[in-house]
Amino acid sequence: GMRVIAVANQKGGCGKTTTAVNLAAALALMGRRVLLMDLDPQGNATLGLGYRPGRLTATMYHAMVKGYDLEAILLPTCIPRLRLAPSNVLLAGAELDLKGVLGKELVLGEVLRQTEQMFDLCIIDCCPSLGILALNALVASTDVIVPVQAHFYALEGLHRLLETVHVLRRRFQPCAVRPLGLVLTFVDERTSLSIEVREGIRRAFGQLVFQTVIHSAIALAEAPRHGQTILTSAPHTRAAREHLELAKEVLIRLART
Amino acid sequence: GMRVIAVANQKGGCGKTTTAVNLAAALALMGRRVLLMDLDPQGNATLGLGYRPGRLTATMYHAMVKGYDLEAILLPTCIPRLRLAPSNVLLAGAELDLKGVLGKELVLGEVLRQTEQMFDLCIIDCCPSLGILALNALVASTDVIVPVQAHFYALEGLHRLLETVHVLRRRFQPCAVRPLGLVLTFVDERTSLSIEVREGIRRAFGQLVFQTVIHSAIALAEAPRHGQTILTSAPHTRAAREHLELAKEVLIRLART
Ligand SMILES: Nc1ncnc2c1ncn2[C@@H]1O[C@H](COP(=O)(O)OP(=O)(O)OP(=O)(O)O)[C@@H](O)[C@H]1O
Ligand SMILES: Nc1ncnc2c1ncn2[C@@H]1O[C@H](COP(=O)(O)OP(=O)(O)OP(=O)(O)O)[C@@H](O)[C@H]1O
Ligand SMILES: [Mg+2]
Ligand SMILES: [Mg+2]
């Protein structure tokens, strides 16, 4: 069946959208049928793939709250085999709209069952919080990837996130979400801080940390400006290679669990 | 009376905590009595000033939900005239705890009235969302400073944030929160992206953008590791000077409004 991978971390700006968009693109280029789902009212994954969130009339808000078929909101992307389930600011209303709904954490899981046959993988870009949207993503997922910025503040919330994943798995049967791995982002070999935090994270989380790291690279911040992924805007850069390496490591880990 | 400045932006990782902590320190060094309030369950401002959030038994959660006196939770810092109202993960429960409370957006405003006489300025570090905590901060504030990363995704949510501020001012009388200014962060003169985004923001928001910009500087990411502000860990760096300049500009704007 389809594997669903949430890219989540309540720490802001750690590279969730960058990792979700470029990993999804790399997996599609490697032949998988991939759905990239934007579950952040900021709509950064939608914007990063060249769409203007404010102009869309069918989004994840409509699929989760208004009962639209998921298939009806899907958009093509610049990469073959990669499709996008977009979001915009309307999704911010979901917190309120889902408040009284029975099993409000399970709505996304039900929506995703509609596309089981259409895709091999679904990658979900989460917003920087552990509110109702992120909980929906985690409960609907089989795996979670946590981008961790190689900075001091990054270590603080990791245990809370992994603890939340653990609680969800116990409480929402048959929710089986497991941490697939932590990926170090914004790595900069020139600074002692980056090296020290990397070592700290490998010591604390061991095998859970992906071998592949994503270095700080301006090309990653520039790609979304052109509505492109790094694989298409700068395919020969280290940043593109790193996301392809990460995709390979993800596939190996998926095959093992 | 005391001016209350929320440092807010739902975009993650744009420099809210870094701006709040170092601006508060600069204002205290310039002779103002300053309260730095951590309103993020991540507790990054608390951690950045050298405290371990998990060890604290009296936090903003206790002041907002358990009725503790604000004075009872205040902590000293490494800077004279700067005190901290700390937070930790308990605050994440506030979303739930405040759900049924009458006037749930007004709780912080009431708490802050206790310290009107003790401080000249209160700086509030907000979490990366527009949920109940950030709304409490905005409604309790007289002003809001918005850190804007000089990156592509940063532009997207600005109009939504300023629109929210506008709605709050209309709906919650006597809420008078006004945008004091946008401060450009992570500026890097070497990249065309940074220059292009800066120009785009100045074109769109004109005078609202502070003259002072905060450049990308590893010293800013290193200071919290030692529980220090940039003013004490690296006082002769450009990053320290920029936060002193920003503090001067803030005081000029406060005097005008
Ligand atoms: N490795 C990198 N090198 C340089 N810039 C990067 C890198 N990864 C991400 N960026 C840029 O840094 C900013 C933050 O990254 P991104 O938006 O992906 O983080 P996020 O975790 O999704 O943020 P949010 O918490 O708001 O959802 C973006 O402008 C992005 O383009
Ligand atoms: N100008 C800068 N130059 C270099 N590093 C910076 C700068 N400003 C902040 N940082 C670092 O970048 C990371 C993100 O900044 P910070 O935590 O202040 O953002 P934030 O908006 O508070 O994030 P969140 O959305 O999670 O609250 C931190 O590790 C911080 O130390
Ligand atoms: Mg994002
Ligand atoms: Mg912060």
Plain-language structure description:
The structure is a homodimer of 257-residue chains. Chain A has eleven helices and seven strands. Chain A is of the alpha/beta class and 257 residues long. Chain A has a seven-stranded mixed sheet with strand order 3-4-2-5-1-6-7, sandwiched between helices. Chain A is globular and about 50 Å long. The two termini of chain A are 13 Å apart. The mean pLDDT of chain A is 95. The A-B interface holds A 10-14, 17, 42-44, 47-48, 53, 89, 92, 95, 127-131, 149, 151-153, 156-157, 160, 188, 191, 193, 218, 221-222, 224-225 and B 10-14, 16-17, 42-44, 47-48, 53, 89, 92, 95, 127-131, 149, 151-153, 156-157, 160, 188, 191, 193, 218, 221-222, 224-225. The structure holds adenosine-5'-triphosphate (2 copies) and magnesium ion (2 copies).
Q: What attributes does this structure have?
A:
binds magnesium ion; alpha/beta; homodimer; 257 residues; 7 strands; seven-stranded mixed β-sheet; binds adenosine-5'-triphosphate
